[in-house]
């Protein structure tokens, strides 16, 4: 009997999504509000409370046994706090305590958004059946998460697997995080576009200067656009290979907007992996596009809530 039901929240800089999710990963009910990202912390929390409140009026709510939250980071699961970069009103904000109050005292499981997407891909998506996996989100930033020995490995604060801030260029550009030459500084969407523009690529008549536009130009054979994606692929390959060498993953799953570029990204990425993943135990490493789409954060937050509780039946993430 899969009677388990959990509430899930996916909190980002643009939207706060909520859902009731069953033990098979099916979304039974959803609610959403825009994130008032520029407002004070209390205003942002009221949007979260509105989403929880909309779920709580459903007759299904009484079956919910926990609330899983995947949040933009940094998060600190050990302290129950969040400090999302793009929500300045929340700095060390006690989200776990406040969300539990709003949810009538339900236990809360907090993880970073990269870890949430990893949980979803392992439970229902491209990493299903793999006991050791790295899942990455390559979009405005570069985040990620790990599955080790068949278990989501969130780490003490919920940030393990944050591959975007592995340094792959020792003397590279300063990253906003304070380090140099981070994967994110080379491979994120805005940085792919920035590099292409610096090297002389020009957007078309519509003026679209996004990474998606660079990908389109690369598909059409523009050499500067191709080179920008090759550089991003090289940075991703170096980070993936370092991770695989350290913890022996056998698949790397790539999602996010940049992951949708298809062969423009994956062809040079697979070539570059041959250069970096050279030891015998990492040579079989495969790379695959993510499958979960826009619900990944919600499904992953639900997965964390379902699997972190003792005596859970039904969901084995």
Automatic annotation (TrEMBL):
Record SUPFAM superfamilies: Actin-like ATPase domain
PROSITE patterns noted in UniProt: ROK
InterPro entries: ATPase_NBD, ROK, ROK_cs
Domain of life: Bacteria
Segments passing through the bilayer: none
A Pfam family matched in the record: ROK
Protein's name according to its UniProt entry: ROK family protein
């Amino acid at each position: 009997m899969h009677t388990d039901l959990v509430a899930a929240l996916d909190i980002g800089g643009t939207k706060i999504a909520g859902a009731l999710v069953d033990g098979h990963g099916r979304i039974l009910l959803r609610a959403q509000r825009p994130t008032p990202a520029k407002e004070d912390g209390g205003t942002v929390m009221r949007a979260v409370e509105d989403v929880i409140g909309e779920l709580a009026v459903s007759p299904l709510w009484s079956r919910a046994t926990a609330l899983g939250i995947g949040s933009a980071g940094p998060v600190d699961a050990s302290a129950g706090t969040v400090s999302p970069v793009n929500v300045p009103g929340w700095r060390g904000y006690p989200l776990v305590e406040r969300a539990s109050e709003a949810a009538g005292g339900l236990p809360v499981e907090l993880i970073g958004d990269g870890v949430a997407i990893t949980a979803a891909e392992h439970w229902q998506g491209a990493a299903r059946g793999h006991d050791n996996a790295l899942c990455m989100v390559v979009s405005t930033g570069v985040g990620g998460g790990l599955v080790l020995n068949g278990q989501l490995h969130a780490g003490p604060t919920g940030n393990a697997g944050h591959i975007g801030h592995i340094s792959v260029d020792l003397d590279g550009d300063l990253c906003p995080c304070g380090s140099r030459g981070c994967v994110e500084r080379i491979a994120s969407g805005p940085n792919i576009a920035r590099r292409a523009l610096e090297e002389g690529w020009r957007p078309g008549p519509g003026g679209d200067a996004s990474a998606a536009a660079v990908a389109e130009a690369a598909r059409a054979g523009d050499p500067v656009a191709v080179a920008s994606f090759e550089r991003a692929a090289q940075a991703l390959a170096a980070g993936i290979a370092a991770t695989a060498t350290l913890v022996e993953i056998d698949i790397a799953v790539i999602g996010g907007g940049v992951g949708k570029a298809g062969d423009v990204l994956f062809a040079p990425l697979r070539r570059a992996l041959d250069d970096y993943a050279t030891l015998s135990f990492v040579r079989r490493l495969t790379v695959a596009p993510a499958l979960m789409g826009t619900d990944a954060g919600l499904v992953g937050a639900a997965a964390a809530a379902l699997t972190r509780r003792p005596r859970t039946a039904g969901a084995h993430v």
